[in-house]
Amino acid sequence: MKLDEALRQYLVQITVNDGKSPRTIASYHRDLNQYLEFMKSRNIEDSSKISQKDVEQFILAQNRVKKNKSVIRMAASIRSFHQFMSFLYNEEDPSVNLQVHGSGLTLPIYCTVEEIGLLMGSFDDTDPRQILDHALLELIYSCGLRISECVGMTLNRIDLESGMVRVLGKGNKERIVPIARGSISILKKYRDTVRPLWLRKPTGLFFINRLGHPVTSRSVELMLKSKCNEIGLKKHITPHKLRHSYATHLLQNGADLRSIQEMLGHSDIQTTEIYTHVQNQHMFDSYAKYFPAEKENDLGSDTDDVDNDKKNSSNSNE
Predict the structure, then answer these.
(1) Is 275 a catalytic residue?
(2) 35 an active-site residue?
């Protein structure tokens, strides 16, 4: 939707239906005017064309000239606007991972390998609905797909025999991504047993629901939220954060940044480089957790042990 029309629709929503105060509405209007003017300066005229990188660049620019309290408020305005566009018009939400705290823009949230195992292992693969849900999340995580790429996947683009998928990404750019071997069995089970059961009329879409309708991005988001609550996963995990997890786990296991860029479909390597910051933070956290000198509470006892060892060694040598 054109930016000016999208803003008009959003302001009607928060004025008429949300019951926000005039002061709050004026604040959101002011923030979003700046935000959308920034997008226009980057030759972006449609709300569906705004990317995660565009949102981050705006916030970083605001960080340089505004107090953090103002930036936090602007981030809230942006999230509210894109959630509205995502819900009513099924646009991909580029602000879904935007988190601004007292110290500014934060790194992407991702699941650990153990959390992914807990999530994927929680489905009942004898229940057709859960087979669908499991297959959706497996494809998103094992191929690092955007949610729109997953729900828009067609039968002719996924080859479960060779374990490859042709992904049609942003700007109609195509990339070929391998499917993790551990994900193929549930995808075959869905394709061969559940999909034919639910098929009402011919469609090229790979994923359909029990009514034979296309699976929507919103339904996947709600399903994942419900599943995380069910298994007690405290992190706020979204389908896009499964994509973050994919990239982070690749980097942690030695994949090079250029390969990750290609598999994610990033046009700019700078977008992919955020994961090096995630990796560095993981390294620093591990250092602080395991390196003895960082354990201030244990330092005295460790020193005493070393002194005793020296004495024992000296006595034994004597």
Answers:
(1) yes
(2) no
Q: In angstroms, how far is CA 260 from the centroid of its own chain?
A: 15
Q: Which of 20, 79, 170, 175 is catalytic?
A: 170
pLDDT one-digit tens code per residue, 60-107: 888 878 887 888 889 889 999 999 999 889 898 898 877 776 555 555
Instruction: Give the predicted TM-score (pTM) of the model.
Output: 0.58
Any idea of the CA torsion for 239, 49, 212, 206, to the nearest 10 degrees?
-70
Pick the CATH number of 113-275 from 1.10.443.10, 3.20.20.70, 3.40.50.300, 3.90.550.10: 1.10.443.10
Q: Of residues 240, 241, 244, 249, which has the active-site annotation? A: 240
For residue 97, the model assigns a pLDDT of 75
**What fold does the segment set 3-105 form as a domain?**
DNA polymerase; domain 1 (1.10.150)
Catalytic-role residue among 146, 227, 241, 249: 146
Verify whether residue 213 is a known catalytic residue.
no
The reported pLDDT for the residue numbered 48 is: 93
Q: Is 266 a catalytic residue?
A: yes
Question: Is 240 annotated as catalytic?
Answer: yes
**Cβ neighbours for 316, distance < 8 A, ≥ 6 positions apart:** none
Range from 135-149, 251-265, 288-302 that averages highest in pLDDT: 135-149
Nearest to 110 by CA among 237, 271, 257: 237
For residue 49, indicate whether it is catalytic. no
Domain locations in the chain as residue ranges:
3-105, 113-275
